[in-house]
């Protein structure tokens, strides 16, 4: 199996990418609806949210991929695995924003954490079951 297409890497990557894409959209939509006069300024912030989010959360992506590989080995239900993955993700988000500091730390943690947790439960998770050919090797 090609490492690039490894289903174990796809789930954490999808949750991570969707969190980075959707959370700023929701934040900007909130600002647009509550502050109509600065709506264009808020929409212009989207690329910055996405770029900075990708860069600053890339270490968390590595943790997500490694933890997902570990979680996959546990004999738990798919929902339990998603729940544990969601908690790990929320912990990484809170830790990242705490390390960055600043006046928006709590607001951003409260914005990104629920989105990550919800997406971790909603995104389809590929489960790898060893085939007979794999067991023979």
Question: Can you give a write-up of this model?
Answer:
The chain is mainly alpha-helical and 137 residues long. 78% of the residues lie in helices and 0% in strands. The protein is built from 6 helices and no strands. It has helices at residues 7-34, 39-44, 46-72, 78-100, 105-122, 132-136. Helix 1 (7-34) packs across helix 5 (105-122) and helix 3 packs across helix 4.
* Oligomer category: single chain
Number of strands: 0
Largest sheet: none
The coarse overall form would be: elongated
The total of helices stands at 6
Can you give the mean pLDDT?
A: 82
The ordered H/E elements are HHHHHH
Structural class: mainly alpha
Give helix % range.
over 70%
Distance between the termini: 14 Å
Share in β-strands: under 5%
- Radius of gyration from the alpha-carbon trace, in angstroms: 17 Å
Low-confidence residue ranges? 130-137
Task: Summarize the helices and strands and which ones pair or pack.
Blueprint: H1 7-34, H2 39-44, H3 46-72, H4 78-100, H5 105-122, H6 132-136
Helix pairs in contact: 1-3, 1-5, 3-4, 4-5
């Amino acid at each position: 199996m090609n490492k690039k297409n490894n289903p174990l890497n796809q789930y954490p990557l999808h949750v991570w990418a969707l969190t980075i894409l959707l959370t700023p959209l929701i934040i900007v939509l909130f600002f647009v609806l509550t502050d109509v006069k600065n709506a264009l300024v808020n929409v212009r912030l989207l690329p910055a949210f996405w770029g900075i989010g990708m860069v600053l959360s890339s270490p968390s992506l590595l943790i997500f991929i490694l933890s997902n590989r570990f979680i996959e080995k546990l004999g738990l239900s798919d929902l339990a695995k998603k729940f544990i993955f969601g908690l790990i993700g929320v912990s990484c988000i809170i830790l990242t924003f705490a390390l960055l500091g600043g006046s928006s730390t709590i607001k951003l943690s409260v914005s990104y954490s629920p989105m990550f947790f919800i997406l971790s439960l909603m995104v389809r998770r590929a489960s790898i079951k060893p085939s007979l050919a794999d067991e023979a090797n």
